[in-house]
Specification:
The complex is a heterodimer of chains A (about 230) and B (about 375).
Chain A: E1 2-6, E2 13-18, E3 23-27, E4 31-34, E5 39-43, H1 47-58, E6 64-68, E7 74-78, E8 86-92, E9 97-99, E10 104-108, E11 111-117, H2 120-126, E12 131-144, E13 149-154, E14 159-163, E15 167-171, E16 175-180, H3 185-191, E17 195-200, E18 203-208, H4 212-220
Antiparallel strand pairs in A: 1-2, 2-7, 3-6, 3-10, 4-7, 5-6, 8-12, 9-12, 9-15, 10-12, 11-12, 13-18, 14-17, 15-18, 16-17
Chain B: E1 8-11, E2 20-26, E3 30-35, E4 46-50, E5 55-59, E6 65-72, E7 75-81, H1 84-93, H2 96-135, H3 139-147, H4 151-167, E8 171-172, H5 176-189, E9 200-204, E10 211-214, E11 218-222, H6 223-228, H7 232-247, H8 250-259, H9 261-268, H10 272-282, H11 293-309, H12 315-327, H13 333-337, H14 342-354, H15 367-373
Parallel strand pairs in B: 9-11
Antiparallel strand pairs in B: 1-2, 1-7, 2-3, 3-4, 5-6, 6-7, 8-9, 10-11
Classes of the chains: A alpha+beta (about 230), B alpha+beta (about 375).
The structure holds zinc ion.
Zinc ion (ZN) binds near residues 245, 299 and 338 of chain B.
C-alpha cells in the first residue's frame, strides 16, 4: 500500500494504491474516485452494536466503507467533506491516537478503530462528546482537519493549552485536564471561549487552524431566514 | 520479524516527539530495550538497564500505562509501557525498591478505573430512574410540576369552572340542606392546619348522585347524593374525601398528567400562564376528572383522619361508600370519577380499627328533617 497527498493545502485528496487483495477503511462518503478493480463494501466496524454506538454517541457515520482491490491492483482517491488539510501517518503497532469524531478519513486494514468512552468531565466539558475514536494497530492512517493541521510536540512533562474545538488527534501517552478559558465562570460562558485542554507530554497533539462550530455560526448569519 | 514488533514507546531528546517505538524485554536484572532500525538505515541498537536506575509511575491518557524514567548518557529518558504482559512481567521481576511505587501506580490505575465505573454507574442509574419515571406516568415530574403552581392560580382556574358550571344549575340558596352542608364543611375545615384554601360549597338540586371538588377549593354537592345518605356523617365522609383531593392537589396532578410531558416541562421551566389557556379549554373536563387509585386511597385515608379530628363518626364514610358501590346499578356518578373497590373499603376499615376510640360529637341538625326538606321519603330510599 502506498499513499500520497495530492494538492496539499485547503482542498487536498489522498491517493492510495492498493495491491491485489489489499483493502482500506474509509469514512463513508470519502471515496471520490477509484479504479474499476476496487469494490466498495459498507462495513460496520466493531459489529452492529459498535456501529450503532458510534452513530448515536459520537454522531459518527453508521458505516465505514471498505475499499477492496478484489479484482486486481488499483487506486482510490479519497477526500474529506470540509476544506482542510490531510495528514497521513504510519501506525507502528505501539503508538495510539485519540481522534475526535470528524477527524478520521481512512485507515489501512491493520488499523483498529475503537469507540472509547471518556471520563465524565472530559465528555461533558471537552466538546468531543462522551465517545471518541481510538486508533491503534499498524499501518497507514489518514486524518483530516478543518483548516490546516498543526502538530504540537510535547516533551515529557511539557504542557500546552488548546481550545478544545480545535483538537484533531492526540497520542495516548499525553494526559490532559479540562480548564475554563478565562478566569471566572460567568466570563467563560459569556465570552464564548468555553473550555480549553491543558495537555501534558510526552506525545504529540494535532490541532486544526479553524473551528468548525464558529465557522458554522459565521455562515449562518448570511443565510436568510425564510418565513 | 514478529520478535521485533515494538511494545513500548521511548521518549528523550533525540527521539521524535511521538516517541520511538521499541521492544522491551523484562529480565532478572532489569530491562533490555531494543530500538527498531531507523528509517535512515541506522542499525537496531539495544540498551540494558538495571532496575536500580529506574523510577516508575502510572501515566498516559487513562493512567493505565507504566512509565519508567531514568537518566541515560544522553539525558532523561521516559519509557511508556502499555502491554499488560510486559507490565505483569515487570512487576514480577522488579526488586523491592520499585515494588512500592509499582503498587502505588497499580492502585492509582484501579482507582481511576473504579472512579470511571462509579461515575458512569451513577449516570446510568439516573438515566434509568428518569426513564422509569417517564415510563410509569412520570409521577415524580408531575409532582415537581404541581409544586410550581401557586395556589392563587389554582384558585382562579377552579373558580372560573365553578361559576360556569353553577350558571346552568338549579342552585339551592338556603334551607336545611344548605345549613347542614355548611356545618359539615365548617367542622371539617376547622381541623385543617395551615389551610391555604378558602373552601366554598354549593348544594345543587339534582338527582345526580354526585359531589365534586374543583382545584382551589370549590365544592359542589348534589341533592341526589344527600338523598342516598342515611346520616349527616355519611355525607361528611364524602366531603372529607373531596376536601383532601383539593388539599393534596390531585386535580392538578391529573390535569398535568393528561396534558402530558410538555406541559410538565413548561411548568417546571416556569411558564404557568401559558398552561392556563390550555387548561381553560378543558373546561368541564375538570369536573369529570377521574382520579387514580393511589389518589383515591390517599384521599380516603387523609379524609378519615380529618373526620376523626373533627370528631365526626368516621364509620359513616365507610358504610356510605360500600352502600353506594353495592346497591347502585351504575347510576352513581360519584363512583365514575372516584373508582370504588373492595380494597378501598377494607383499607378504610383497617385504618379505622387502628385509631383510638373517641366519642363523636353529633351534628346540630336532624338528618331526617334535612332529607324531608328535599322531598325524600323519611325511610330508606328505594
Ligand atoms: Zn376520590
Amino acid at each position: 500500500m502506498k499513499s500520497e497527498i495530492l494538492y496539499p493545502g485547503a482542498f487536498p485528496m489522498v491517493r492510495v494504491e492498493l495491491a491485489e487483495g489489499e483493502h482500506i477503511k474509509a469514512e463513508s462518503g470519502a471515496m471520490v474516485a477509484c479504479s474499476p478493480t476496487i469494490d466498495i463494501e459498507s462495513k460496520m466496524e466493531g459489529g452492529f452494536l459498535g456501529a450503532l454506538s458510534r452513530k448515536f454517541l459520537t454522531g459518527e457515520k453508521f458505516f465505514f466503507q471498505t475499499l477492496r482491490a478484489s479484482r486486481g491492483a488499483g487506486e482510490v482517491l479519497l477526500a474529506p467533506t470540509v476544506p482542510g488539510e490531510i495528514i497521513v501517518m504510519e501506525l507502528d503497532g505501539v503508538s495510539e491516537y485519540m481522534v475526535q469524531k470528524d477527524g478520521f478519513l481512512a485507515g489501512a486494514a491493520g488499523v483498529v478503530i475503537d469507540s472509547q468512552m471518556q471520563s465524565m468531565s472530559r465528555g461533558l466539558l471537552g466538546g468531543e462528546g462522551f465517545f471518541i475514536l481510538k486508533m491503534s494497530g499498524k499501518g497507514m492512517l489518514a486524518l483530516n482537519s478543518f483548516g490546516a493541521i498543526h502538530k504540537i510536540e510535547l516533551k515529557p512533562g511539557q504542557e500546552y493549552i488548546v481550545d478544545n474545538s480545535h483538537l484533531v488527534a492526540w497520542s495516548t501517552t499525553t494526559t490532559y485536564n479540562i480548564e475554563k478559558a478565562t478566569s471566572g465562570w460567568v466570563a467563560s460562558f459569556t465570552s464564548g471561549e468555553g473550555f480549553v485542554c491543558r495537555f501534558r507530554g510526552p506525545g504529540v497533539v494535532y490541532i486544526q487552524s479553524r473551528n468548525p462550530g464558529s465557522f458554522g455560526a459565521w455562515v449562518r448569519q448570511f443565510i436568510p431566514v425564510s418565513q | 520479524m514478529v520478535e521485533n514488533t515494538p511494545n513500548a514507546l521511548c521518549f528523550g531528546d533525540e527521539f521524535p516527539a511521538s516517541g520511538a517505538p521499541c521492544l522491551v524485554h523484562v529480565e532478572d536484572h532489569g530491562l533490555t530495550i531494543t530500538f527498531s532500525p531507523d528509517r535512515d538505515g541506522a542499525e537496531s541498537r539495544s540498551e540494558s538497564l538495571r532496575f536500580s536506575e529506574l523510577t516508575v509511575s502510572a501515566g498516559g491518557l487513562d493512567h493505565d500505562q507504566l512509565v519508567a524514567t531514568w537518566v541515560g548518557l544522553k539525558g532523561q529518558r521516559t519509557l511508556y509501557l502499555k502491554s499488560p504482559d510486559v507490565i505483569r512481567a515487570f512487576r514480577q521481576a522488579a526488586p523491592d525498591h520499585l515494588s512500592q511505587p509499582l503498587e502505588r501506580a497499580a492502585e492509582q490505575v484501579r482507582q481511576v478505573r473504579q472512579r470511571h465505573r462509579m461515575v458512569w454507574g451513577i449516570v446510568g442509574g439516573v438515566l434509568l430512574v428518569v426513564m422509569l419515571g417517564l415510563w410509569f406516568g412520570s409521577d415524580v415530574l408531575v409532582e415537581l410540576a404541581v409544586d410550581r403552581i401557586p395556589v392563587e392560580w389554582e384558585r382562579k382556574l377552579g373558580e372560573s369552572t365553578y361559576r360556569d358550571f353553577l350558571a346552568h344549575q338549579d342552585v339551592m340558596k338556603e334551607g336545611p340542606a344548605v345549613d347542614a352542608v355548611n356545618e359539615m364543611i365548617h367542622r371539617l375545615t376547622g381541623q385543617i392546619p395551615e389551610n391555604p384554601y378558602t373552601f366554598e360549597v354549593t348544594v345543587v338540586k339534582s338527582d345526580v348522585v354526585n359531589a365534586f371538588a374543583l382545584p382551589g377549593g370549590y365544592i359542589v354537592v348534589f341533592t341526589g347524593l344527600m338523598k342516598k345518605a342515611e346520616s349527616g356523617e355519611e355525607v361528611a365522609g364524602v366531603l372529607a374525601h373531596e376536601l383532601n383531593h383539593v388539599l393534596q392537589r390531585h386535580g392538578l396532578e391529573r390535569i398535568i398528567k393528561q396534558l402530558g410531558f410538555v406541559a410538565v416541562v413548561s411548568i417546571v421551566l416556569g411558564n404557568p400562564p401559558g398552561l392556563g389557556g390550555m387548561m381553560k379549554q378543558l373546561g368541564v373536563e375538570l369536573m369529570t376528572l377521574k382520579f387514580g387509585r393511589a389518589q383515591e386511597t390517599e384521599a380516603d385515608l387523609t379524609g378519615l383522619e380529618l373526620l376523626y379530628r373533627a370528631k365526626i363518626d368516621p364509620s359513616g364514610m365507610i358504610t356510605f361508600f360500600q352502600r353506594l358501590a353495592e346497591k347502585d346499578e351504575g347510576r352513581v356518578e360519584w363512583l365514575s370519577t372516584h373508582p370504588m373497590s373492595n380494597a378501598r373499603a377494607e383499607r378504610l376499615k383497617t385504618q379505622l380499627a387502628e385509631m383510638p376510640k373517641q366519642n363523636p360529637e353529633p351534628f346540630t341538625f336532624d338528618w331526617t328533617n334535612v332529607r324531608a326538606s328535599q322531598g325524600a321519603p323519611p325511610s330508606t330510599p328505594p
